[in-house]
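Box 3.1. Reading complex inputs
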Amino acid sequence: MWILRGLRKGVMTSGYPGKVSDDELAPDFPLKEPEECPFGALKNGKFDINRCLNCRLCNAPLGRKLDVDEILNQMNFKNSLHVFFLDVGTCHACNREVAQLSSPYYDVQRLGIFFTPTPKHADVLLVAGCPTDDMIPVLREAYELMPEPKRVLALGACANGSLCGRDTGEFVPVDGYVAGCPPAPVQIIRALLKISGRDME
Amino acid sequence: MKALSAVFRRDGRYLTVWVDYETGKAEVIPTDSLPDRKIAPALIGETASYVRIPAGTNAVPLTYGPAAGGLGQAGAFELLTYGERIVAIRPVYGYKRRGIEEEMLNRPVGESLVVLERAAGNFAMAYTYAFLRALEENPDEEVWGVRQVLLELERLYNHFNVIHKLAGAASQKVATMHFHALEEDVLRVFSRLVGHRYGFGANGPGEVRILDRNVIERINDIKREFLGLQEELLESKIFIDRLHNTCRLTREDVIELDAVGIAARGSGVPRDVRAFDRFYSYEPITCREGDALARMMVRMEEIEKSFEIIESVDVRSVKSDPSVKDGLNLGLSEAAHGDVLTLVEAEGGKVRWIGLRGASRINYIAFARGITGNIFTDFPFGLESFGLNFADADLWQGVRIDVDTQGA
Amino acid sequence: MNPYYLITIGFVLSSLIAVGSRRASYWLSAVLSATLLGLLVVQPGSLDETARYFMLISSTVWLAASLFSVSYDDHYPRLLAGAFSMTIAGMMIILLAKGAVSFLIGWEVMTVASYLGITAKDREGKGAYKFLAFGELSALLILAGFGLLSMGSGSTSFSAWKPSPVWNVAFFLAALGFAVKMAVFPFHVWLPDAHGNAPANLSAQLSAVLTLMGLYGIVKLLLIGRPADWIGAFFLLFGGITAVLGAAYAAGTEHVKRLPGYSTVENDGILLALFGGTVVALNHGVMDLASFTFLSLLFFAFAHSVAKGLLFLIAGRLENGTGRFPEVVRGRLTTVGVVAGYASALSLAGIPPFPGFLGEWLGIESLLQSFKIPDPGFKVLMMLVGSLAALTAGIAGVAMSKMVTYGAQRAGGKKGHPVEDAGYAFLTLVLFTVGIFPGLIFRLINVPMTALTGEKATSFLGGALGIRNGFLVVAKGFGGISPTYLAALVFLFALAGYITVRVFRGRNIRRVRAWSGGLSNPEYPPIAHSAILLITESWLYGTKEENGKLHWREKVNQAYNWMSRGYLSFSEWFRHSLMKGSDSVYVAYILLAVMVGLLYLLHAL
């Protein structure tokens, strides 16, 4: 009896935006700027969180961090945002995290965020992974096919240039960054809400 | 019986790896030409020869991917069809050639591990297991016991993901969401247990780092939930009917293509690395029919076995001897979808050359064989029943930067 | 002299002129058709109203086909041009015939002339021969029926015939003969072969007008006297089966001319079913329903003939190489041609604002009013056939969308103003006009309908719910539809949308490529359009999937081929066993025969 099971399990949807429980974030980000990084996240002594791999090999104190995104250019689509997810070379963890957004735990449809199977219906291009040689033309084509107004959100350390040295920004104009390897679902939601124009303060 | 498990290029020759799944013995043999096994071209990333266009056909080639909504990853299939029927099909590898294997070289092993985990994120524990099996000089029983738990936890969430995908393809809207939630439950256990949702950073050479061991008790709740869901799901005749006789792989197909993991076990061939892993005492679970239903049933039984293994180990942080073996060493481990192989050459505590072979590289070819002759609507069932991904299929090898070698 | 006789002689002349100049022959045909059309509309004179209606439809198609032929026929043997006009002459004789003899003369002239015309393209002659064989079968049946009727009333003149004890049998034989010409199941196998292999200008005639002659014969007989119930039931059932089979095979076929051929089989099936329904309704005294069904019959015939004629003219230009869909190339049709292709295909698929839409609606509406018939058996039969007709309409959609997507849409891009465009434009205009203002045709059906049931066709035009009187087509006490208002509404909304987009947003338009999950945008092959039907209904199509090839063969066709092969081998065997091939045996036979004859003669004397 699926009905009884569902009633028994109750509502498990995340309280975010609002409350974030400890279960939803892993304590894998440095809370203070680290002094060394074996993977090149330090540029001229400055820590670039977008390139942090969550490897926890640096000597900094670690903890749960929600605000790991940086949005440069918001849209005015507060009530309904359509997202096209494009994997240009991930390790598959980012794909799984983005898929979790549609699970009962996060359910982004309640927030007005929808995924489309084609860039032609999308407002935001969510790019994840290191842009590989074969996928760069596809990335450019997907961006070209999106109607105005449009934004690009680079998801995860790989898309931000870590590990393979290629940055999404070299191929398409980027309007926002989300750090993490992979970014947790609540962190992705936060970035999407922000880029859609919602005030996250 | 020996199966061709991997082919790498080194110093202008081929390095072939053969594995005997009955005795557990593996051989690494350098040869000049590609071995005469059907799977050999796929193992070096070339799949064009797997599609043969029959003369006088009225089927046309179509490409599905590499940014297809249904696949959701950077990979493609090239198929031949005259409408509805899949006449011939092959996977296209190469969209995920990131060069990540090069990043693993000439670093302390702890850092190489960081890169390896990010080679195939949802199989990170399996790759780490294989890698450290190859490298550790003095493996400690307790450390490996906890590593087993991490490996089985990863198996759990991957199997849950496969069942979620299969139920989703059959429009079992409620069941698919329940299993998706189960997958998230296990990721949250990982998150509290080791400090990362996918278990990255838990393993180091000779040690395993656990943050909060009490969270393992949640596994009991997950187990109870799974057993209830399994019973309800298997009652749905409509669901079972979609999987029955879909994407059938015969025993002969498996042996001809040297298929591994779930693809082999679902067709009655007991290939499981855990059977001859000295830290496991394990009997492979097989099912004879070879269709998508058989593969799902194998997974369901493996889930129950995984729960048993997790319950039998005392999970806590353990530290032991971190020393690393020099020379060329092979490591194998059974990931959720099949075995992954790492061939590592270390020198002075650093990795100088590495070859990786994910189970997807082989099993996508087995999938292509099984789905031939099926109709389009059966494609998602066939594909999801294997539980593969292209990130794992495109891994190959890293080259020594300081030595002049041919090919890479 | 009667102007129509003059025109008929004119067509015969045109056929003879073809020996000298094909162009002149076709132009003469066109002029004669136009004159005929004008005459029929303005000053029909003493012509019988039923004949006038059918002649009107025919001359519309003849005009367009003649104009088309001027630019189409530039390399065929002169035989084709001659046959073209002679076929028309034959049909004129049929339409003007006042008695059985002249009718049959016209029938034979039409059949033989068409046969000769088909051979102009069909080198092996198989399709042509099949056409001739079944044509003669139908002539034989008609002859039998007419013969019985003539014997019964003592005269071959139509006006002298009256119901007699042999009426039903005679009617059935003649109607069956006409139905064979209309490709009823199981005598339909000749049509796709013949129409598919004939040159397009002749195919248009064959499908649109020749089969119409079959209907003309049936209607004429019906107006003389009503046949028994069982004849109605027979044609209901067989008409329904023919329709479904025709639609199914049309949806599955790969050849640009066979598809319209099968579509003709389908539409003729519907016409026969409607005829059956009229008979049943008449016999049970339900005059309303009988009138409505009769109206559907005649209107559907109009819609079909005009649209099918146009579709064959288009298909003629799409034909390339072996004539299969994958071989359709660009640059065969001008914009006028492409629009005409869309219009004809959409009309045949039953889409508004074309007459096919109203015709389909009328047809299904009549059959589904079977509850008005008191007899329970007929109630159910007619309703079942009505559901078959509805199924047919759906499958026809698959066939016609294939014609548009892989045919008309792909063949555009031709520059210039060939003469055929005039023919295309004319028929497209007729389709639009009749589709939006069907009442014009209803007026023409008044007299035949009054002769049959005492009601007028225009009585089915009404007004309600804000629709002006005369623009609502009503099935009395059942339902109604207004193609005029529908067309007007759609046009207004489309215009409003277009203006809104252009005025308010028209400036920022960026054109981009298609997206299909990557960089390549492959296309489905034409066979994939039908693959779902071919694979799931493989019992109907006899689908085979071997060596990466999907193909099928029509089962009834195969049965005929098997039967004819069997007969031929039997005939060979008989010949060989009768005449061993030895001359001496042959001489012995002759001597034996002579001796027997002499003995008999001697005995008789």
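In summary: Chain B touches chain C through 28 residues (CB under 8 Å).
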